[in-house]
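Quick start: what a row looks like.
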Amino acid sequence: MTVLHVMCAVNVMLLVIVGGFCVKYEIPAKLVSRITHGGGGIIDPVKTERYTLQLDVFRNAPRGDEAIVMLGDSLTENTPFCELLGFRHRIRNRGISSDNTRGVLHRIDETASLNAAKVFILLGINDIGNGISQSETLSNYRQIVQRLKASSGEVYIQSVLPVDHKKLADNARCRRRTREAITSLNAELRRLADELGCEFVDTYSVFAGDDGEMDDACTFDGLHLNGHGMMKWCNFLEQYM
């Protein structure tokens, strides 16, 4: 066997070993995920560890007399509604970070099974950020609401909150979250609420300044609410509770 043959055989063995390692530890999928996330690609929330963990917690949590369910993404997950509202209401938080209408539709049976008296939905900002078409977002939203109305009491559709683009200038997904995209989706959500017999809650106006940007006093990163913003949101929503 020549030296060239030996080198080829060694290279093949190395490729087999490296390939097996990549498959075992899902290196290609993780690499693609990192590239697309950093570059503003679509995040599939259903495939994230956070989504899997939270949904497992939801499914295993003890059930009771459910009064209010808050359904959404990280804006909802981050907000301790019960504490900020002085424990005056029985509230289940069903928010998951990075979730969008696709992810919520995938897990809607768990939320519907709570048979809540009221469900408040806040979704859409991650659909816009991930480049999901408005038509798909509205189709998913329609299915979510229809499923909830079949098992729950009142369903409230909250408008998508504004963002602060100055603080999000370097974020590829957030550059898609233009004022025009947000207000356009909100207009369609208002029409959808009317069509499906839900109440539309204008949360956008609570946080938007004259320029349509998120009130700087309510956010720490331009997208998520800080403590002051969460308290403002809770105080506004309590009139519907």
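That is the whole record. Residues 25-39 have pLDDT under 50 and may be disordered. The longest strand covers residues 68-72.
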